[in-house]
Amino acid sequence: MRYNTVFTLATMALGFAGEVIAKPNVVIGYYPSWKKQYMPAVDFTKYTHINLGDWFEPQVVTEMHGKGVKVLMSNPTTRSTLLTSMVNHVRDFNLDGIDIDWEYPGRLGNNCNVVDAANDTPNFLKFLQDLRAQFDSTFGTRKKLINLAVRVEPFDVVDYANLMQYDVNGGWNPQTGPNAPFNYEKGKGMQVSFLTAGLGFYGRSTTATVDMTKDPNNQYQNQSSVVPIGDSEDGAWWDSCAGSGGYSGNWQWKHLRDQGILTSPTTAAAPWVRKFDPISQTPWLFNPNTKIFISYDDPQSLKVKVDYAAAKGLGGAMVWSVNMDYNNELMNVIQAWPGNGDHLNSQRQYFLGPGTSSVPITTSAQVTTSASATTSAPATTSTTGGSGPVAGGPCSSPGAYQCATTTGKNPAYFICNNGAWLQQACGSGTACFQSGANIVCNWPSA
């Protein structure tokens, strides 16, 4: 599963109403069955749905059904010729549906893909409609599930759309940054209760070119293009399509813990140093000896995301992937999904946007971004075209965000860091859009 995805990179203002929030409808977990030799014992009773890879043993489905879990096959491509084989596969293996992970309609995604920017999305919708029709005619109306891993409008023929809310920053960027900053992206054209918040049980490592402990409140610092080896399961890879290879740099949560990087969920073992960024609401680790930087999620950061998703009425959570937890330290946060209004009974701290400080959210509070946050970015001429800040130019509001241009076609954006604008870029295939004092990486404007 590839993850470059669409996110709100700066947190949006929160507005809470006093309604009671139910427990999550779904907790969907991806089970990477191709990594059988690394699969630990997983408590599947904590999940409602499991998405399997293309290969799996039939007894796995029986085992999961015995625990009350629905099982879907997760397929990375969608072509019209797959319709019959998908229906047959669901029937033959007694599956509960299909999870489709096409990355991405109208976007390259992988160098070996054939892209039709004008027709991929409508063709995808037609494929989903045909698959729904075949499922309904074969098994009965809505008896089988169709789920998507999305960066696109999820369409009303699917059951759940799993928002892949990770891999915002990594070795492809010139600076270090959070793998999965706190964000919320409401899917277009879909009822919010059908969306699930995608949570990564892993982090990404890169190599900084400076000692980040000398500027410990800044996780955006220059990095090398060479990605270091990650945890004990990482290994060299080669992408024949891209003509390049290397290491993923990935660190699964279980290996951050069992390989001694973290001696507790919030304590790093020397020489590692742990910091928690109040803007992206994520922890990060740095080793001053090797200059390796790791951005990841832990129980503290996941709680922020889970509380927010519950408050906004999302249907539940999606986990990539079920084999990466350690003693259920991360899953327990999801299982504590706020219910019965308890998220409103105690004050929570959230970062509201650039230029503001964290404030408590209480019952029926309506919070908006402060005026100072909306007027912090200068209107200077950008080297990337249009109106916007200049890389290295002066800025006065630490943590302020601004797109390089207002065209909706440019991936570049800027962060006010130590009095100067630091240039960053949205993920591959996306562009920066300004939303008040916040920015959104989304599909480029037509």
Automatic annotation (TrEMBL):
Ranges of biased composition (kind: Low complexity): 370-384
Ranges where the GH18 domain occurs: 1-340
UniProt keyword Signal, yes or no: yes
Pfam families cross-referenced by the UniProt entry: CBM_19, Glyco_hydro_18
Family the entry assigns: Belongs to the glycosyl hydrolase 18 family.
Gene Ontology biological process terms, A to Z: chitin catabolic process; polysaccharide catabolic process
Protein name: Glycoside hydrolase
GO cellular component, one term: extracellular region
Domain of life, source organism: Eukaryota
Reactions catalysed according to its record: Random endo-hydrolysis of N-acetyl-beta-D-glucosaminide (1->4)-beta-linkages in chitin and chitodextrins
Keyword Hydrolase (UniProt): yes
Gene Ontology MF, one: chitin binding
Species of origin: Linderina pennispora
Signal peptide coordinates: 1-22
Keyword vocabulary terms for this entry: Carbohydrate metabolism, Chitin degradation, Glycosidase, Hydrolase, Polysaccharide degradation, Signal
Stretches for region Disordered: 370-391
SMART domains named in the record: Glyco_18 (SM00636)
Coiled coil: none
